[in-house]
Design a protein that fits this description.
It is built from 3 helices and 5 strands, in the order E-E-H-H-E-H-E-E. The protein has a single domain, classed as GTP cyclohydrolase I, C-terminal domain/NADPH-dependent 7-cyano-7-deazaguanine reductase, N-terminal domain (GTP Cyclohydrolase I, domain 2, 2-Layer Sandwich), CATH 3.30.1130.10. A hairpin with a 7-residue loop joins strand 4 and strand 5. Helix 2 packs antiparallel against helix 3. It has 122 residues and is α+β, with helices and mostly antiparallel strands. It has a 5-stranded mixed beta sheet with strand order 3-1-2-4-5. The protein is elongated, with a radius of gyration of 16 Å.
Length: 122
């Protein structure tokens, strides 16, 4: 096992509980830690043997910049789902910071585990 770290990346999106906050996009900082098996990539030194972090980052950017959420918790969950769509990712840690929240910055960190959708019958 191992981890691939992405970020912090600054992204703009509509976020907040007040109508005023949804008038203009706000910057959030996103950090993602992908938990995955890196054994093959370590041995082969080939890009196809690892999780394509540039592809996941592009999916995160697209998913965040097109989103509108009230809470950073919901945004973090949305990002986690994007990451866990790659079955090679066994778990993900997502931190979303809203650095310009008033009066002080706020952040949330979540941990989600990739669970198989088909449970084998015994």
């Amino acid at each position: 096992m191992g981890c691939i770290h992405i970020g912090p990346v600054s992204l703009d999106c509509f976020i907040g509980v007040d109508t005023i906050e949804h008038r203009t996009k706000q910057t959030v900082k996103v950090t993602v830690i992908l938990h995955c098996n890196l054994q093959s990539a370590c041995q082969s030194d080939q890009i196809e043997d690892t999780v394509a972090n540039p592809l996941i980052l592009e999916r995160i950017k697209a998913g965040v910049t097109k989103s509108s959420f009230h809470l950073i918790e919901a945004l973090a969950q949305h990002i986690a789902k994007i990451c866990l769509a790659d079955n090679r990712v066994t778990a993900v840690d997502v931190t979303v910071e809203k650095p310009h929240a008033l009066p002080d910055p706020v952040a949330v960190k979540i941990h989600r585990i990739n669970t198989p959708t088909d449970t084998p019958t015994i």
